[in-house]
Amino acid sequence: MAKIDRYLEYLVANEGSDLHLFAKQPPYVRIHGSISAIESTPLTSEAVLEILKEIVPQKNYDELLQEWDTDCAYEIPGLARFRVNGFKDRDGFGTVLRQIPQIIPTFDELRLPEVLRDFCQMSKGLVVITGPTGSGKSTTLAAMIDFINETRNEHIITIEDPIEFVHKSKKSIINQREVHRDTQSFTRALRATLREDPDIILLGEIRDLETMETALECAETGHLVFATLHTNSAVATIDRIIDKFPADKQNQIRTMLADTLQGVVAQTLCKKLSGGRIAAFEVLKVTNAVSAMIRESKTHMLNSVIQTSRKIGMQSFSDELVHLATSRIISVREAYIKAIDKVDIETRLKQANIALTFKEDDKIVARQRRTATEQQKIEAAEETLKLNPDDVKAMNAMAWVMSTSTYDELRDAKVAVAMASRACALTNNKDPYSLSILGVAYAEDKSFRRAIDSTQKAIKLYIEQGDKESAGNIKTRLELFQQKKPFRDE
After folding, report:
1. Quick one: fold of 5-100?
2. HSE of 56 in the Cβ direction (CA atoms, 13 Å)?
3. Residue among 81, 77, 79, 107 nearest 166 (CA)
4. Which one, of 204, 258, 209, 257, lies nearest residue 227 by Cα?
5. Dihedrals φ, ψ of 478, to 5°?
6. Chosen CATH of 359-482 out of 3.40.50.300, 1.20.1250.20, 1.25.40.10, 1.10.10.10
7. 310: DSSP letter
8. What phi and psi values does residue 208 have, to the nearest 5 degrees?
9. 406: confidence class by pLDDT, cuts 50, 70, 90
10. In this structure, are residues 101 and 80 in contact, taking their beta carbons and an 8 Å threshold?
11. Are the CB atoms for 196 and 178 separated by under 8 Å?
């Protein structure tokens, strides 16, 4: 039994997704989206390296030592498979293992949009599944491949790094190839695939320009290609694909993409109110109108198309997140956090008569934290001045908070002016920073003529010292004082 197995058994037993082992840190697990430590004793870099040596192939271990990162898979028979990433950071070696369920989830279990079944029934073209790392792209693709495997007589070839979900041939024949174990690279395997009589190709990740171009060629020559990218939205995915190519090839790629792209599915994982996580999806289905927009470089219009095409299976993140929030599956806060277009989600939530009360709560918490921080600065300055009454730095720190705080209860113009004046006197009015602090103190005391005078002197001294950046920064304060307005450190 490998040393890491007990951590992985804990992870699986508690329905966790990821195990984190880092040098100088205790072991952590991610359960239902939240990370927590499972032991208090930190691991050493040598201990992490020893743990990895037990579970990764020798080739990957050598790669880790030479290249400082590596990817592979690890399986505990009867428990689960895990995707392994080993790496080196400033503290030493670390690793993250992600659990890959042995049983492939179904469409219904994952609550996948029905239009994804349509993508699975296609005979050719490109379907891109996109989203940030850890958003469930691999799981979605596994469910789609399994659906094809159960319903169609096809030859499916997957190219992955590493292989995550293991498929067994059912109605279809499946070959799974792992990069660096069964093939040298994604591009090499993809080109070889064309000579292996495939109907459907799953490309675990598009990492470079050559792989992208080959994937488009495969889709163009009559194969159904599924691939993943790391982008945040359906529309951004199209722009990302085109922008990968040199400017002189982009028109050609737009045409290829317009002719071959069948759909883009963007997804993100949200925390459920009942525990666990659920995926939210954005779906762009390529129609004749969408093809024309891609070809004519009008992708900025696609968001509008998505919002008005729900009848044919398209959906936006905002629509999906609002639905999940109104159905009490996720919180309103979670919907807002996961939304890409914050203005749009706010509008839609208000239209659904959902108040964004959490934003007011956040403001209260932020206010409490900042008030406490500023109060601590005042108290620290007071303690310093008890030990050294002539500490200019402490005087300026206290005067700054008492002059510029956004909270009335922390401001005290009289004390601020006294402190800042004392600091200027101790520096013989030759320190531009102290003079600038005196300026904001006078402004808080509504002595704007004096505030202007002190700030102008500070600007002049900064310029004489060659510090034009600092001089420029306080010119905005001077403009406020000339308008008889105090400065607030917001």
Report:
1. Beta-Lactamase (3.30.450)
2. 27
3. 81
4. 204
5. -60, -40
6. 1.25.40.10
7. G
8. -145, 175
9. confident
10. yes
11. no
pTM of the model: 0.68
Tokens of 461: 């001294």
Length of the chain: 490
pLDDT (mean) for 340-346: 89
How do the domains of the chain map onto residue ranges?
5-100, 107-315, 359-482
Q: How far apart are CA 123 and CA 219, in angstroms?
A: 10
Give the other-Cβ count within 10 Å of 217's Cβ. Answer: 16
- At 386, the amino acid letter reads K
User: Among all chains, which residue has been given the structure tokens 């989830």?
Assistant: 105
Q: Read off the tokens for 441.
A: 């103190």
Q: What is the structure's pLDDT at 349?
A: 86
Measured CA to CA, the distance from residue 319 to residue 113 in angstroms comes to: 13
* 171: three-class secondary structure by DSSP: coil
Beta bridge partners of 28: 20, 37
Distance CA 89, CA 75 (A): 25
Report pLDDT digits (tens) over 16-54.
999 999 999 999 999 988 899 999 899 999 999 999 999
The region, left, alpha or beta by phi > 0 then psi within -120 to 50, assigned to residue 458 is: alpha
Q: Per the structure block, which two tokens stand in for 451?
A: 């505030």
The angle, 0 to 180 degrees and rounded to 10, between the axes of the packed helices 317-326 and 342-351 is: 40
The residue type at 226 = F
